[in-house]
Amino acid sequence: MQIAEYGCQGEEHGVPQALIVDDDDADRFRLIRMCRKAGLGFDFHEAESLSKMRAAMDTRRFDIAFLDYRLGIDSGQEALAALRAHPRQRAAIAIMVTSVDHHDVVIEAMRSGCDDYLVKEELGLDAILKAVATSFERRLIRVRRSESIARRADLEERIRRLGSGLAPEMEAVLQRLFGRVSTATLQEDAGPWRPDHHDMTEMCLNGLTALSEIEEVCRSMSGPDAAKAPPIAEGAV
Fold it and tell me: Contact 37/46 with Cβ under 8 angstroms?
């Protein structure tokens, strides 16, 4: 599985960074071994407690974190909250590792921002690959959605600036130019028609029409239904 295609952000020397948080040495070793057998080329880091996890998060940015639900006196939910709250780890993928009899834990974790989960008793290569691939795909979708929202906001701001600042000035210039072209055209009614006057007239009218459309767009974005506007198509500039 090629993790690099998902745009890892914490990788060092081209290697995605993974954090395993579990108070059981054997469970950490088993998960690392199975991930490597599955072909996941992570650079693994381990933490046996919430405090060690916080220290590890301060040193580097992780692409993925496997969080055991039971961490001694702490819990996986606390670890998940710490991961999501850390300024360097907000984009990190979180996979909860729990026991088969804790389905309520899985539901709560997913509601709290967990990307996927693994069941210890059902841990296998296929399960690991599926959870990791699904989680990275979800993160990629989130990133693209955020980028699309940012592009839309930038475009709307540019249109607003044009509508409130530049558009009135452009309209005044075009109106004056249109008046002069019209006057020059009338003065030459008796003589040969000059095509350049016709072209300039058409240009002025097109410009005024475009400005009117821009103002209408600005009004629609500022109205009560602006939030309901459809998303910009992927790839729009």
Answer: no
Tokens 């530049």 label which residue? 166
> Helix count (H) and strand count (E) of the chain?
7, 7
Q: Token pair for residue 172?
A: 């005044």
State pTM to two decimals: 0.60
Asked if 211 and 174 count as a contact pair (C-beta separation under 8 A), the reply is: yes
Assigned token pair, 186: 């009338």
Query: Which amino acid appears at position 150 of this protein?
Result: A
Structure tokens at 43: 């650079």
- Is the pLDDT at 52 greater than 80, yes or no? yes
Count of C-beta atoms within a 10 Å radius of residue 226: 11
**3-state class (DSSP) for residue 106:** helix
φ, ψ for residue 64 (rounded to 5)?
-150, 145
**The pLDDT value given to residue 159:** 66
Q: What angle do CA 198, 204, 209 make, to 5 degrees?
A: 125
Rounded CA gap, 119 and 2, in Å?
24
22 in Cβ contact with 68 (< 8 Å)? yes
Coil, strand, or helix at residue 184? Answer: helix
